[in-house]
Amino acid sequence: MSSMTKVHGQWSSRMGFILAATGSAVGLGNIWKFPYMVGDSGGAAFVMLYLLCIFMIGLPILVSEWLLGRRGQKNPINTMVELVEKNNASRIWVLFGITGVLGAFLILSFYSVIGGWSLAYIKDAVVGNFSGQQGDGILALFVGMLADPWKLVLWHTLFMLITVGIVARGVKGGLERAATILMPALGILLLLLVIYGMTTSGFKEALLFMFKPDWSGVDGSTFLAALGHAFFTLSLGMGIMMAYGSYLGEDINLLQSARTVVIMDTVIALAAGMAIFPIVFANNLDLGQGPGLIFITLPVAFGNITAGWFVGVAFFVLLTFAAITSAISLLEPVVELVEERTPLSRVGSTLAAGLAVWLLGIAALLSFNVWEEVLFLGLNVFDFLDTLTSKYLLPLTGFGVILFVSWILDKESVRQELGMDVYDFSVWNLITRFLAPIGVVVVFVGHL
Ligand code: TRP
């Protein structure tokens, strides 16, 4: 059945909705990507810009996506079509629904590769490969994995199979229930690792690195990276949050819910940084290591603490779980589109979409070995996919969404829907009509 004709269900509670949205938001972006971006971009200055983008741009866009979804009650593309017609707006706006689905497809291809690394590390943790290792031993393990394309293909395939299996069978509900326990468990584990960090000699340096800004190295590209990551980590700009909004009851307060999701997402990211950087400094590891950062740092802790075996296994299991809940949210819109535009069934559409993502993912993972030298615009396939989506597609789509909500929709009805008084709404208007969109433009132009 296409989602056009589907009788739209609703979240059973505000709690269920928040969990699902948090499940999509909290993922590899928080634990894998955020720390290495902090490391690459010189620390606290990036963290500050990131927080600014999250609260000034990300939060209003999150609210806007939910609001659009709740009004449209359909998938992102059809929601845009309908709202455009209702509001006599140009069809151009529909384009933002389409770039969303394309972006989700591209992101999932490299996301799955990293999800595969996480699976591989469950195995390494189980067989005790971290035990007693220091920084160089752990690094060698990681380098060895990257050098073996077959291994990477195997883990990437397994990750895609799990994701496809869940989406095809439409059993997300159970997963969301599991999240009630597993997400807090991940939070607690990160906290334990931060405490471990406190016992190392690198803690103070890590604290300064993450929270005492040095603005001298900041340029347009740091800003764009922070902006792009704010979108990535909140799952914005892909119509995914819009789709979640379409299941949302009228009584749910959008601003409050957005605040909850944004705070949880941010706390997890900062905790991941505070777990990782003490290990980096204590072991003289390379800050600018890039995508491998968490895989060469945290196992050092697992290999040397009491109960490290258990903590290591648990950590990678929970990381994989967080990655899967996000991956599902990325595959879903692609599957919906295929299902709607082709004669394929739900299962057929999922397989087709999954296969296409899997193939592109293979190209992405080869950039860590045999295709290292294959470059597009100076970037290997992996970096190209990441850059194209995080720095261009996501901000562009988010920009469209926020402009549509703030300039095209009827103002008074939006004010009522957000439950704001006239004063609060004028602040909201200032942010969504001017500050956030201008911020996005300035960041783009500043980068050119
Ligand atoms: N937010 C997820 C993370 O941080 C990734 C993700 C899931 C995503 N769905 C998305 C990113 C939609 C952009 C758009 O890991």
Commentary on this structure:
By secondary structure, the protein is mostly helical. It is built from 18 helices and 2 strands. Helix 3 (44-72) packs across helix 4 and helix 7 packs antiparallel against helix 15. Bound molecules: tryptophan. Tryptophan binds at residues 24-25, 27-30, 104, 107, 232-233, 235, 238, 240, 326, 329-330, 394. Tryptophan binds next to helix 1, helix 2, helix 5, helix 10 and helix 14.
Spell out the key features of this protein.
448 residues, mainly alpha, disordered N terminus, 1% strand, single chain
Average predicted confidence as pLDDT: 91
Give the overall shape: globular
Order of helices and strands: HHHHHHHHHHHHHHHEEHHH
Strand order, largest beta sheet: 1-2
Termini Cα gap? 45 Å
What small molecules accompany the polymer chains?
tryptophan
Strand proportion: under 5%
Query: What does the largest sheet look like?
Result: 2 strands, antiparallel
User: How many separate helices?
Assistant: 18
Number of strands: 2
Rg from Cα: 21 Å
Percent in helix = over 70%
Structural class: mainly alpha
- Uncertain runs are 1-7
